[in-house]
Amino acid sequence: MKRVTVAALVAVVEKKPGESWAAFSNRHADWGRELVVYLARQRSGLTLKQIGAQLGIEEYRTVGKAAQRFAVALPRDKAKQQLVKACMNELSLVET
Question: Which residues contact 89 (CB under 8 A, 6 or more apart)?
């Protein structure tokens, strides 16, 4: 798979709840924020620190925890699985 920019990931995820990144990015444990971080780990090729810098998250451990929390919940949550699949399909159209 080709790498995708963090900005492209944010744009794809913003469409799902119909909210802007600014609206949900500062909510602790928000699924949209966790989804962006999870997808960034999967598709951007960036480190936790680099992902955090691009998303305005200062602590790389916060980025890692968000990705881990989403990944742990994913196998038992069909709605999140469908959300990831929809995002991945859409991302295949914006690969760089």
Answer: none
Residue 79 is part of which domain span? 6-91
Alpha helices in the chain (DSSP H): 6-15, 21-24, 31-43, 48-55, 60-73, 78-91
Give the phi and the psi of residue 42 in degrees, each rounded to 5.
-80, -35
Q: Which amino acid is at 2?
A: K
CATH number for the domain harbouring residue 40: 1.10.1750.10
In a domain, residue 96? The reply is no
pLDDT of 95 reads 54
pTM of the model: 0.89
Cα(40)–Cα(46) distance, rounded to whole angstroms? 7
Q: Summarize the confidence of residues 26-40 as an average pLDDT.
A: 88
How many Cβ atoms are within 10 Å of 17's Cβ, its own excluded?
Answer: 14
The size of the chain, in residues, is 96
